[in-house]
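$ run holo --ligand "flavin-adenine dinucleotide" --emit tokens
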Amino acid sequence: MEGSTAHPRTRPTVLVVGGGYAGVTAAKALDDVADVTLVEPKDAFVHNVAALRALVAPQWLPKIFLPYDHLLENGHVVRDQVVRLGGASER
Ligand SMILES: Cc1cc2nc3c(=O)[nH]c(=O)nc-3n(C[C@H](O)[C@H](O)[C@H](O)COP(=O)(O)OP(=O)(O)OC[C@H]3O[C@@H](n4cnc5c(N)ncnc54)[C@H](O)[C@@H]3O)c2cc1C
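-- output --
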């Protein structure tokens, strides 16, 4: 039935470069509607905003390092650094 399927046959493919606040937000927002690949060299998201609090309250440290392992339900995270992007004509 048109427009009612939860998993349309053709999903866009999205590459998100960098898993900072912007990249994580974009990747999670698109995870249900696109085939998302997030490329990030670090193994965990660092919650900068809470870093100063963690300096004075070390028990907060686990709260500011959030591993990327379980970030996406459908897409996946590649632990690497993007060094070059090419268009379809360069494949
Ligand atoms: C200690 C500290 C405290 C802060 N506190 C606040 C605050 O209280 N309020 C506030 O609004 N802002 C705060 N900021 C600023 C805030 O952290 C930044 O504005 C925010 O991180 C920017 O988010 P971003 O996603 O654009 O970039 P970033 O967080 O810089 O993320 C970029 C990501 O891309 C990855 N990356 C880079 N190059 C590549 C590549 N070639 N391939 C793959 N991955 C790549 C990096 O590893 C990184 O994970 C703070 C910053 C710091 C350092």
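-- notes --
The beta strands are 13-17, 35-39, 44-46, 65-67, 76-78.
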